[in-house]
């Protein structure tokens, strides 16, 4: 099976690095899926989006991301997010509270939406 090197990095930390067979991200141009051998590409991540990585063992890694860029070159994908959080780290109740709070900023609402969506995409929503 073909694979590619993938790094998911946020300003505050490196979240994941390894070999993967598929990467999916929400960009300003729409949802994009990257497989090994994809054409070189530079994309801008949406504010309040998600990234999904399928590693070579078939494990899905889902993260809520807030802004940033990703690049595809040869057999490498680099995801550079302003902030990112694994779906397994999300406090769903807190994120839903932000969504129901009408006084939260637009940025806080987007981040909360991304967190809830990441958990739902990972299949761990409660």
UniProtKB/TrEMBL annotation:
It is found in: Cell membrane. The keyword Ligase does not apply. The keyword Transport applies. Its main location: membrane. Transmembrane segments: none annotated. Pfam families: ATP-synt_DE_N. SUPFAM superfamilies: Epsilon subunit of F1F0-ATP synthase N-terminal domain. Residues 4-84 form the ATP synthase F1 complex delta/epsilon subunit N-terminal domain. Keywords: ATP synthesis, Cell membrane, CF(1), Hydrogen ion transport, Ion transport, Membrane, Transport. InterPro entries: ATP_synth_F1_dsu/esu (IPR001469), ATP_synth_F1_dsu/esu_N (IPR020546), ATPsynth_dsu/esu_N (IPR036771). It is a peripheral membrane protein. CDD domains: F1-ATPase_delta. It comes from the Bacteria. Belongs to the ATPase epsilon chain family. Produces ATP from ADP in the presence of a proton gradient across the membrane. F-type ATPases have 2 components, CF(1) - the catalytic core - and CF(0) - the membrane proton channel. CF(1) has five subunits: alpha(3), beta(3), gamma(1), delta(1), epsilon(1). CF(0) has three main subunits: a, b and c. This is ATP synthase epsilon chain. It comes from Nocardia fusca.
